[in-house]
Design a protein that fits this description.
Keywords: Transferase. The protein has helices spanning 24-33, 41-49, 93-107, 122-130; strands spanning 15-18, 54-59, 62-73, 76-84, 112-118, 134-139, 149-155. Strands 1-2-3-4-5-7-6 form a seven-stranded mixed β-sheet, with helices on both faces. It has a domain at 15-110: Gcn5-related N-acetyltransferase (GNAT) (Aminopeptidase, 3-Layer(aba) Sandwich), CATH 3.40.630.30. By secondary structure, the chain is of the alpha+beta class. The model has no long low-confidence stretch (mean pLDDT 93). The chain is built from four helices and seven strands; from the N terminus they run E-H-H-E-E-E-H-E-H-E-E. The longest helix has 15 residues, at 93-107. A hairpin with a 2-residue loop joins strand 2 (54-59) and strand 3. Bound molecules: coenzyme A.
């Protein structure tokens, strides 16, 4: 049995849990690697304001992925950012993070979840479509670099 994945990381158990302050350094690394390029303060902001919907995927004591969500109104959730380490993509980690986040939103009473994704990001779009999101609308010049966004929505 092969105990390594294609990128040479060991295959192992994965835990989805809330972000903790000790995850900060690895989460910043992950954000940079996934081209999020967010201000690191964003992570602190989500931890302080939305701790129940800021999740990480931990494996062997390392952070392999994270999702930042928040309830933007009593009935509406928003997925702000999802990222998986490049060496761990394609293993179902993004799907696990999103599935757990949707379940938490459901428990919080959210009935609709919204997200935006870059027009060229087909991989993420496919994941969201697989998870039951539908295209709500498209916005040109949405991001600072001029790329457009597709806005997706899912009912819970
Ligand atoms: C988008 C991203 C989070 C997906 O995470 P992931 O852990 O690799 O995705 P999963 O392994 O859970 O795959 C879920 C689905 O994504 C799609 N997918 C995954 N890898 C893919 C690939 N190499 N090519 C095309 N689609 C792919 C498939 O639909 C897959 O479902 P399947 O396994 O049933 O075929 C990850 O690629 C990433 O971090 N990208 C950079 C940051 C980013 O773009 N974030 C999204 C911001 S909106």
């Amino acid at each position: 049995m092969n105990s390594m994945n294609a990128a040479g990381f060991p295959k192992d158990d994965l835990t989805i849990r809330r972000f903790e302050p000790s995850d900060f350094r690895e989460a910043v690394e992950l954000d940079t690697e996934a081209r999020g390029d967010h201000d690191p303060y964003l992570l602190t902001f989500f931890f302080e304001n939305y701790p129940t919907t800021f999740l990480v995927a931990e494996t062997n004591g390392r952070i392999a992925g994270m999702v930042l969500g928040f309830r933007q109104s009593p009935l509406e959730g928003r997925v702000f950012w999802l990222a998986v380490r490049s060496g761990r993509q394609g293993e179902g980690i993004g799907r696990r993070l999103m599935t757990e986040l949707l379940e938490i939103f459901r428990r919080l009473g959210v009935i609709s979840v919204i997200l935006e994704v870059r027009t060229r990001n087909r991989r993420a779009q496919k994941l969201y479509l697989d998870l039951g999101f539908e295209i709500a609308t498209a916005c040109k010049n949405y991001y600072p670099d001029g790329e457009g966004a597709i806005i997706m929505r899912r009912s819970l």
